[in-house]
Write a structure and sequence with these properties.
- With about 650 residues, this protein is an alpha+beta fold.
- It has 20 helices and 31 strands.
- The strands form 6 sheets. The chain has an 8-stranded antiparallel sheet with strand order 20-21-22-23-31-27-26-25, with no helix packed on it. Strands 18, 19, 24, 28, 29 and 30 form a 6-stranded antiparallel sheet that branches. Strands 1, 2, 3, 8 and 9 form a 5-stranded parallel sheet that branches.
Length: about 650
Amino acid sequence: MIVLVLILVLSGTALAQDQIKTAFVFHFNQSIVPYADVAEHACYVELLRMLRSLGPTPFVLHISGTLLMEWQWSDSEALQLVKEGIADGQFEILGSTLAQNIIYSIPDGMDNEWQIRLHRAMLRDVLGVEPVGFWNAERVWDPALTDLIAVNGYTYSFIETPILTKSGVEFPQLRGLHQVKGLDHSLYLVADDLDFRNAINQRNPAAALGYLRVMNRRDLDGSFLIVYAEDAEATGLWDLEAGNSPAQAVENLRRVLVRLIEDPDVQIVKIADFVQEQAAAAQPVAAVTGQADWMIAPSRARGFADWFDYNANAPELEYFRDLYHKVSAYIAEVDERISGKHVGANRLIHHARLSLAICQYEFAAVGAGGSDDAMWELARTALVPAFAAEAAALGMADNPQIFDINADGIEEIVSVCGSNFFVFTPLGGKLLYWFDLSTGDEIVGSENAFYYEEKFINDSVYVPPLQYQAPLWQWLNQPELLGDLTEKKYVVRRRVGNDVFETVLSDDYRIVDLPYTFTLAEDRIVFHAEYQGVEIEKSYILHEGGLVLEYRAVGLSPAVTGWRVENGVSPSSAALLWHGRGALQTELGVGRVAIKNTHTGLVLTIAYSPEIEAALPGWMRYGQEVHLTLPITGETAEFRISFTTAYEGGRDSD
């Protein structure tokens, strides 16, 4: 009996040593766009619920910084599931670039440095983790990236198996751990196994297990790690985009995972643990520059030899690289001149870098973006906080100034009053931006949100509320698969002073982007326009506590029943991107609306006369929308709105 027990124990030990190690990596990624809600509905929540149900089996997750911002803002269940998985020790988290730009494609080292730093800081602040693994966006590998990645605290990254093969690594060592050396640092490289990905994506447990058993027979010294790395969107969103129900996608993957978990020859591990165990045995490799396998065919479909040819010669990439370079160079120039001695200016530089990083979302990934796309064009808005930083630290030679501050083809009016930095546009007579120079907080702006396939016109133009097929998600044509998302409305980049005529029949938006002339005085900007017999005067009166907006309209038609002013405000908008909707509190009282950012203590109060009707129609992306409507009973309308700021309890440090 004792001998039999001993045989069983020894047999179990031998079996454990013969296990093939594998790891599963899921890549979650959207920009700060409404489509994140679609992805959550289609697959994110169900995928994470399924992974959690398989605990304690470990899984590896990468979540882009832009998607984390969206999850924070929407109070996502997916985010809560990720946090629970981290707390239980089930999920390993990877770092990356904040907005999933292809590092190889952006030559400005500072841009890539900020991308990596910002994402790492977000993972620390939102998820409480300091990752050691780096998700290299779209897998374009260059050995020159080694130092950049390693110096930012990362131990390992991924490399696709075809690139390793081209580097001279032969089959027996292909799925082992490798080490590449830079000038000053080294980095471990883990093979991203495209063959295993294809086997798993068949959603056939026998195919997946058969592949692993073949690898196990060839893994003579237990040094293999078979990595499956795939977009989380493959578990439902892609089905939805193809016009199919996403309901079965997660279940199909679950069946495969359960079969592998149950098999005694398979061990699912965290990659960080494998790297730590195998570090001493890592094989040196002089990895060649290589491109992601998936991008070759779509590059050829566009008439290029491969992705490297597309990257080097696509006109839209050349245009946007030039735009990024100019914006980045200006931010760096201002940063150098202000010498880091002004708190508000330092935060404004950070705001500028964050804005630029967001607008490099998926840059150079084939099919991600193109000419005139707002997703990349909005990078020019980072010029505004950079100029504000200069004004905060060094002052403005002329006040006000008239120039194209955001390089969008329209000259804006820039004015400083006390610590308030204002940017007005003659297109609609709107307030585009308002920064507090003493703290670096943005109060009006929220310039980073957009929607996929949005074309950029200029930074002043009014963006109507967004809804399914109007103009959102034109490629999705089965509303029954979206549930109540088809009824949801989204608002992006709403500023202050968007004017609408309310009539008996409908709302008339023809004056919202009306060109105005203007006159300047020391403490005010007065806009003038004429529209179909209506004389309109809008005056912005500036003071150290904020501003007052006064209206006078003469010659109104009897058909006009109300004058609505749509306003979007974003107290400490960078903090809202970082900390989500939970940082924003709104209180509607008699004749006033108070909007507070609880993280920074900034309170914006909007006051108006009793005859004005106030409404809070919903959250805009990273701020609060406030509608103020004056009922019209005659041909003349006069009213005023006041905007003031204060800090409750003092500005918290970032």
